[in-house]
Structures are given as structure tokens and as C-alpha cells.
Amino acid sequence: MRSRFLPDLTRRLRARHLAIAIALTLSGCRGVSAGPPEPVRVVIPAGSSFAAAADSLRSAGLVRSTPLFRAYAKLTGRDRAIKAGSYRFPSDATWGQMLDGLTRGLGVVMTATIPEGYTLASIIPLLARTLDLEPDSLEEAVRDSTLRSRLGITTPTIEGYLFPETYTFAEGTSAREAVAAMVREFERRWKPEWTEQLETLGMTRHEIVTLASIVEKEARLTEERPVIAAVYHNRLRRGMLLQADPTVQYAHGRHAQRVLYRHLEIDSRYNTYRYPGLPPGPIASPGEASLAAALNPASVPYLFFVAHPDGHHEFHTTFEGHTRARQEVRRAQNRRPQ
Fold first, then answer.
1. Are the C-beta atoms of 316 and 325 separated by less than 8 Å?
2. Nearest CA among 221, 223, 195 for reference residue 209
3. 28-86: pLDDT as tens digits
4. Could you say which of 52, 175, 252, 264 would form a disulfide bridge with 48 (CB–CB 3.0 to 4.6 Å)?
5. Could you tell me if 129 and 147 are in contact, meaning their C-beta atoms sit under 8 angstroms apart?
6. How many helices (H) and strands (E) does the chain have?
7. Listed residue (152, 239, 155) closest to 198, CA to CA
8. Rounded Cα distance, 299 and 310, in Å
9. For 166, phi and psi rounded to 5 degrees?
10. How far apart are CA 136 and CA 235, in angstroms?
């Protein structure tokens, strides 16, 4: 005998499904943005439940109601087996598009953060790991003649022009695409008034980027960048050797805690203890603050500086004052417990 409760249960389930369908239709099943669609980044950590993923979508402004979104996912059979990752969805993406992305891994992006002062020797392996690329393909991309011509540089690589920033790359991004995106970011961040300032200084953009890269490697405190830049500008105007330790380290291809006299013997155009003027090109990727400092140095007469262990610099106008400061720093370092 058929149970009399089954028809009632069926009607209740149908009514529930119909109510949910009506609610979804009214909600539009789209993100909440009313303006032009913009990409929105959402991170779904490994091991996240669907409820946690729905909350992340709501926090990003892509979903109004997590209960309705979860009900829709359950009705369409896409509330399980979501893939963790970093996604980029259009702000007007439909719920179906987002669920397709979460369950099939569509729209997954990879994130790479390039710190200020990184050299190509550090950037290339970082990108290779992040994008699952062969380092050789990135080595080739940073030597691209078209990019070097566009930037107006004669150095063999585009060292210094991969702007330090956090980048998101789509899965399958090639080495050339990644490098080109980072160069575009450099060009985007270069301000029109900076080009005007080049004429005032009588320098090329490549020279300023080169100087800014040295400032980037020297400075630890933001407020000291314009002063450090001024020291180098003053030395250039007087025809003095720059004697910048970071350029010697770059010539050797490795970082040394302290530059010793034997390091200064290397015969390289990047050795500013031996060769006058700026080195042939940047020694790292300078950030915006260092570029601004190189273009707008402080109005100070200093010609020398020495770094203290805590990161601040002591500035002097005479070699005698500089020598005393350097000796004091060394004595302080020798007194520190090993």
C-alpha cells in the first residue's frame, strides 16, 4: 500500500525548489557590481568547505546571499569538489560561471610578488617557480631586443625595468607574456612629470633608473633616499668616482656582507671604484620611491655617507669626517658579540 505521506513530501520538495528558483531569478544570479565589469580576485585556501568558499565570494562582492548561492549550487550539483586557488572573476559573473570556475579550476591565477631591489638573478627563479616555467625561457625573454629597443637601452638585458609589484598571472602565461606585463607596469608607473625632470637634470631615463637602482640597494629608511641620491648627484657633478658598494657586489654576481679591498679589484664597468660615472645600467629593480628620489634629490652638500648597523646613514661633506665615521662604525661592529 502506497504511503499517504509521499505525495505531501513530493509537493513540499517541489514547492521548496520552486521558491529557490524564484529567489535565484529575482537575484539575477550575478555579482553585485552595478558599474562596468572589473576583475575581482578571490582566494580559496586549500581544504576550504563550500560554505567557506561562498563566504569568500560574498566578501569579494560577487555574491549577495550565501544561503541562496549554496542552495543554487546544491540544486545544480556543484557544491562539492571545489578546487583551491587564486581566482579572478568578472564583477558581473553569473553564479553558474563562478561555480564552473570553482569546480573545474577555471580562472585560476598565480601570484608573484617582486620586492623592491630584486635583481634578475632573483626574479627569474621566482617567476620560474610561480609560473612553472623553464628559467632559460625567462632568460631569453629578458634579453628580448624589441623590449630593449622600446625602453631605449643598450644593455644586454632589461635589468631594472621589471617593476617591483605583486602580479597575478593566468595559468599558462608564457615567459614573454610575464616579462612584458612587468615592463608595462614600469611604463605605467613612470610619471609624465618625471620625463620633464629629466631635461632639468640633463639625464636620460636609463641613467635615472640606473641611479635609482643604486639608491634602492643602499637605502633602508625611506626618508634617506633623496639624501643618498643627492650624494651621488653631487659626486657625478664633481667628476668623482661613485664608489657605490652595491655596484661592486653586482659585478661579482653575489651579495657580500661587507665589500673588502680584494672585491674592488674586479675589472668591470659596474665597479664604480675603478670606472667613473654611472655603471652601464641598473643593478636591480628600483621602486617608485627610489625613482622619485633619483629625480628629485635633496638639496644638501654631502659627498659621503656610511651605513650604521641599524640601517641609518651618517652623511658628511669631507673625506676626513667620513673616515672618522667609518672607523667608528667598524669599532662598533667589532664590539658587537659574535
1. yes
2. 195
3. 455 555 555 678 888 888 788 999 999 999 999 999 889 999 998 988 888 888 888 78
4. 52
5. no
6. 14, 6
7. 152
8. 25
9. -95, 125
10. 39
